[in-house]
Write a structure and sequence with these properties.
Layout lengths: L2 E10 L2 H13 L5 E14 L2 E15 L3 H11 L8 E7 L1 H10 L7
Antiparallel strand pairs: 1-3, 1-4, 2-3
Organism: Paraburkholderia metrosideri
Pfam families: CutA1
Family: Belongs to the CutA family.
């Protein structure tokens, strides 16, 4: 039996931003895993011109329950004015989906 999870894709300007966003999201348990997909070249319309930039793509894996919080975190901490944030639900294998759900539980306070 599969488990629904949420995947979130974003691009960032460099490795230090990628590492910080990933580490902080993991520490807050907003995601169970972040995969750095590597350097990509993006071309896009921005303020009336076509821009090209070298960026790093990040893929966050989170539970459906924490997806909105992860999106809000990225909106607040991303260095771009209009960050690329693409989210979609996917069916994960039962074991992987359960792992994501378990790892994205809010930390217990003692």
């Amino acid at each position: 039996m599969s488990v629904n999870v949420t995947l979130l894709l974003t691009t960032v300007p460099d490795a230090s931003v990628a590492q910080k966003l990933a580490a902080d999201a993991l520490a807050a348990r907003l995601c169970a895993c972040v995969t750095q997909l590597g350097s990509v070249q993006s071309s896009y319309h921005w303020q009336g011109t076509i821009e090209t930039a070298q960026e790093i793509q990040l893929l966050f894996k989170t539970s459906v329950a924490r997806a909105l919080e992860l999106e809000q975190y990225l909106q607040a901490h991303h260095p771009y004015d209009t960050p690329e944030i693409l989210m979609w639900q996917a069916s994960a294998s039962a074991a992987y989906g359960q792992w994501i759900t378990a790892e994205t539980q809010r930390p217990f306070h003692v």
